[in-house]
C-alpha cells in the first residue's frame, strides 16, 4: 500500500559516543542580559574527523552564538565544549587551536598576501624558512600561486581571491577545527557557488573538520556532510541534506530547506481505523499513523510534481495553468487547484527539466507519487 511520509521521526537517531569525534558540543545554553529568551538552548552536536557540519537557520536562530561559544568568544551559561577529547569550555580563545573565518574576512589591508597568511605562524614564533615554506604550500593549495600572488596587496584582488587568502591564513596554522561565520555572504551567487565547491574540495584534501554557519540552504547542502537546522536557539533536526530534504521533521524545516507546496487537507479515520487524507474531492488512503484527525497540510516539493493532459493513477486533482517560464534549463509552471480544492492562498509550483506535455490543450491534471507526500498538522 502506498503511504505518505509523516513527520516526527529524526532520520539520524543518537548513535552514542564515537572515537572519531573531534568537536563535541553538549547542552549549550546562553541567555544575553535583558533578553526574554535564550539565544541558544540545550544545543548539542558532534563534528567527526574530516567532516563539515553546517549550522543552518534564519537570522537570530542562535547559530552565530553557538559558533562564538565554540571559539571562546562567548561564555555559555551551561553546557560544555570538547575538542579532541579534552574539555575546552573554560579555555581562552587563543589556547583552543580553533580557526576562524569571519564574514568580513578581517584581512589586513596594509599587509601583502604572504604577510597576511604568515600572521598566525609568526605568532607561533616559527623560523623564517619554515614560515615561507608553509605559506607557499598553502597558497598553492588554495590556488593562489605564490609566484603570482605572494606580494600582491589585498586591495588589488577580487572578492573570491581575498576569500582564498582568508582561508589560507586560517588553515596554515593547522587548527583542530575551523569555524566559518557566513564568509561568502557578500559574494555574487555564481562566485559563491564555485567557491563553496572549491572550499569543500580543499577541506576534504586537508582533512580538517569544520563548522559552517550560514542561512543559505544551497551552500549548506553543497558543502556540508551533515546539517543541523536551528530555530529560536534550538537544533530542530540533524541529518544529511538528502535526509532533511526528503524527510523534514516539521513544517518549519520543510519550508526552510527548499521550496515546497503545501495543500490544505483533512485527515480522517475510516470505519476500520485506517487513516486517509482528503484533498479537495480526492481521498488518499493508507497514510500511516502519527498525526491526529482534523485539518492538515499535505506538502510536496515542486520537482516531485508533474502535469498531464489525461488523468492517471498518479493524478491528484485537475488544475488550471496560470503561467510558466523557462530559466537555466528548468521549466517552472504555476497552476491553481480545482476539483473542490479550497483554501489555497498561492499557486502550486511545478518544476521539471523537460517541458510538460500539452500544457496548452485544455484540462490539466496535477500528478505525484503519493509516497512523496509529507503531512503536517496545520
Describe this structure in words.
This protein is α+β, with helices and mostly antiparallel strands and 378 residues long. It has nine helices and 21 strands. α2 (113-123) packs across α3 (128-141) and α6 (189-206) runs parallel beside α7.
Unreliable sequence segments? 1-16
First-residue to last-residue Cα separation: 25 Å
In N-to-C order, the SSE pattern is: EEEEHEEEHHHHEHEHEEHHEEEEEEEEEE
Return the structural class. alpha+beta
Instruction: Count the beta strands.
Output: 21
Strand content: 25-35%
As laid out across the biggest beta sheet, the strand order is 1-21-15-12-13-14
The rough form would be described as: elongated
Q: Output the number of helix runs.
A: 9
Q: Which range best describes the helical content: under 10%, 10-25%, 25-40%, 40-55%, 55-70% or over 70%? A: 10-25%
The radius of gyration over CA amounts to: 25 Å
Average pLDDT confidence is 86
Main beta-sheet annotation: 6 strands, mixed
Layout of helices and strands:
Elements: E1 5-6, E2 21-30, E3 40-48, E4 52-56, H1 63-71, E5 78-83, E6 86-87, E7 98-101, H2 113-123, H3 128-141, H4 146-149, H5 159-171, E8 177-181, H6 189-206, E9 210-214, H7 217-223, E10 226-231, E11 234-239, H8 241-246, H9 251-256, E12 261-269, E13 275-279, E14 282-287, E15 294-300, E16 305-308, E17 315-327, E18 330-337, E19 348-352, E20 364-368, E21 374-377
Parallel strand pairs: 1-21, 4-9, 4-10, 7-8, 8-9
Antiparallel strand pairs: 2-3, 2-5, 5-6, 10-11, 12-13, 12-15, 13-14, 15-21, 16-20, 17-18, 17-20, 18-19
Helix pairs in contact: 2-3, 2-5, 3-5, 6-7
Amino acid at each position: 500500500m502506498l503511504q505518505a511520509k509523516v513527520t516526527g521521526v529524526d532520520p539520524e537517531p543518537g548513535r552514542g559516543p564515537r572515537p572519531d569525534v573531534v568537536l563535541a558540543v553538549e547542552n549549550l545554553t546562553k541567555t544575553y542580559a535583558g533578553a526574554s529568551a535564550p539565544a541558544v538552548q540545550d544545543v548539542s552536536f558532534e563534528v567527526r574527523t574530516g567532516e563539515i557540519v553546517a549550522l543552518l537557520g534564519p537570522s537570530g536562530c542562535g547559530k552565530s552564538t553557538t559558533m562564538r561559544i565554540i571559539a571562546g568568544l562567548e561564555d555559555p551559561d551551561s553546557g560544555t565544549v570538547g575538542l579532541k577529547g579534552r574539555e575546552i569550555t573554560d579555555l581562552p580563545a587563543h589556547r583552543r587551536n580553533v580557526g576562524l573565518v569571519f564574514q568580513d574576512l578581517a584581512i589586513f589591508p596594509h599587509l601583502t598576501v604572504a604577510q597576511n597568511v604568515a600572521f598566525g605562524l609568526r605568532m607561533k614564533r616559527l623560523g623564517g624558512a619554515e614560515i615561507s615554506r608553509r605559506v607557499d604550500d598553502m597558497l598553492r593549495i588554495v590556488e593562489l600561486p605564490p609566484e603570482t600572488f605572494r606580494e600582491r596587496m589585498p586591495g588589488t584582488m577580487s572578492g573570491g581571491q581575498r576569500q582564498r587568502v582568508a582561508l589560507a591564513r586560517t588553515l596554515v596554522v593547522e587548527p583542530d577545527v575551523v569555524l566559518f561565520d557566513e564568509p561568502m555572504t557578500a559574494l555574487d551567487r555564481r562566485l559563491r557557488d564555485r567557491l563553496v565547491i572549491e572550499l569543500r574540495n580543499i577541506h576534504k584534501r586537508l582533512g580538517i573538520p569544520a563548522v559552517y554557519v550560514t542561512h543559505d540552504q544551497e551552500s549548506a547542502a553543497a558543502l556540508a556532510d551533515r546539517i543541523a537546522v536551528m530555530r529560536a536557539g534550538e537544533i530542530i533536526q540533524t541529518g544529511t541534506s538528502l535526509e532533511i530534504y526528503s524527510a523534514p521533521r516539521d513544517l518549519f524545516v520543510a519550508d526552510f530547506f527548499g521550496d515546497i507546496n503545501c495543500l490544505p487537507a483533512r485527515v480522517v479515520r475510516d470505519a476500520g481505523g485506517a487513516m486517509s487524507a482528503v484533498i479537495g474531492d480526492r481521498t488518499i488512503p493508507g497514510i500511516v499513523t502519527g498525526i491526529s484527525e482534523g485539518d492538515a497540510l499535505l506538502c510536496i516539493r515542486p520537482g516531485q510534481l508533474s502535469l498531464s493532459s489525461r488523468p492517471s493513477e498518479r493524478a491528484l486533482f485537475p488544475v488550471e495553468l496560470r503561467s510558466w517560464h523557462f530559466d537555466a534549463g528548468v521549466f517552472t509552471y504555476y497552476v491553481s487547484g480545482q476539483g473542490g480544492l479550497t483554501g489555497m492562498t498561492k499557486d502550486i509550483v511545478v518544476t521539471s527539466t523537460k517541458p510538460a506535455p500539452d500544457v496548452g490543450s485544455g484540462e490539466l491534471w496535477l500528478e505525484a507519487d503519493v509516497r512523496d507526500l509529507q503531512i503536517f498538522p496545520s
